[in-house]
Design goal:
Structural class: mainly alpha
Strand content: under 5%
Number of strands: 0
Shape: elongated
Length: about 150
């Protein structure tokens, strides 16, 4: 025997699924942008500003490899988020947190872009943490339609 879905429960599930899809797409884009940033830092050090006397001084190629690795993992985790895997939600929060830390540490090299990535990653963490477990539809399956929804008219 299955429990009947109430309209409120279905609306909460659709909202939760929408937030997870938002987080998956944003994490994918953040990962892709981090991959590009890593490639730029590895291949062409002249793109970035160099600062003296910075506490967290690394070679720009080193920062490039860090961003490249974080970006690649973020893209993989975003695919898991689209499949609504629980491990992907946990890993998504962890990766977005690491992206925030890496961009904070690289603020002197690319300040505006680092602030944008920190804000974007903050939205990803929020979207993944606000959704209660068990309120997700599988994004690969069709959602059940509630009985109260009027038919589409052309």
């Amino acid at each position: 025997m299955t429990a009947a879905h109430t309209p409120a429960q279905t609306a909460k599930q659709e909202w939760a699924t929408g937030l997870t899809a938002f987080a998956a797409v944003m994490l994918f884009l953040a990962g892709l942008l981090d991959i590009f940033r890593g490639i730029m830092a590895i291949a062409e050090d002249d793109v970035f500003i160099t600062t003296r006397d910075y506490v967290f001084a690394f070679d720009l190629s080193g920062w490039g490899w860090i961003h490249l690795a974080l970006g690649a993992v973020a893209v993989i985790v975003s695919i898991g988020l689209l499949r609504t895997a629980v491990w992907a939600r946990v890993a998504g929060v962890a990766i977005a947190g690491l992206v925030i830390i890496a961009n904070f540490l690289s603020l002197p090299y690319y300040p505006v872009w680092s602030v944008v990535m920190i804000a974007l990653s903050g939205f990803i963490v929020w979207a993944l943490c606000v959704v209660p477990r068990g309120n997700l539809f599988d994004l690969s399956e069709e959602r059940p339609l509630p009985d109260e929804r009027p038919p589409n008219r052309v």
